[in-house]
Amino acid sequence: MKYHFISSIAIPFLLLIVGTFSYLVILNNWNFEIASYSIFIFTLVYILFLEQVIPLKKHWTTTKKMFLTDIKHLFFSTALFDTLGKTFALSFVIYLQKMLFPSFDFWNSFPFFFSFIFANLIGEFLPYWYHRISHKGNSNSYMSLLLWKFHSIHHLPTEMNWFKTNWMHPVNIFFNTFFKMAPLLFFGFSDQIIFSVGVTHVVIAYLSHANIRTVKSFWDYLIITPQLHHFHHSKKMEEAKNFGNILPFWDLIFGTYYNRKGSVKDVGVMKSENSKYPSNNNFIQQIFYPFTVFKDCCN
Hints:
Blueprint: H1 2-27, H2 32-53, H3 64-100, H4 112-134, H5 142-155, H6 170-186, H7 191-209, H8 226-232, H9 249-254, H10 283-292
């Protein structure tokens, strides 16, 4: 009973704390960068604590064998490549904005909360389609396979936990950032809105991969919860839907929303004699995999 209560409040409590702190940051004009790192650290500690208290599956905990690869993805994929990818993507977007789109303050006339919701929906639209297309893996299309090979690194793990959020190929990171931030900058959303959207993305992204037991609830229709995203990583194709990164809105609109009672059984990629996916323990092989394996990679 105690753990059921913790599971039921785990998501709203995190959102309440982060939302309140973000509001204070904007209200008092505190430094956005320092605030973002503070929220990241708090989310890290919070999720790691819950993974010990209410784990969904005990065998999903990070093992000594996988820990080194997890750390490499944390420091290189997230700390280094994620920073560089976001820098290049944002620089490119800002350049295009200055060249092609005039600045305007249209959204300043709307209430903050309305602009925040609308910005999240706009920011999720292109990443939703990029994510969905990346899962096609059409063997007759090199581009389709290439996108899947970049994204497949994220689906290699056979367990879900906080660390697995960081398993992202640098190219995947670049396109995710570009497709999310480009519309927000083109439409002229304020720095406060972009900060809030960025914080929302980080918190929900790490939450959705967490190895924590949550209850099926209305939250599954508002944000991408662990319940929803675990199904996205399922080895069963009929369950591997939910292509929204942060919100399930576009999944609900375009018919790719999936949820049910219970939890996913197995996660990872479907491997066969013809598949040539990189080893889960070889970080370097994972980084170069999309450039070295061609059309027979994933049959």
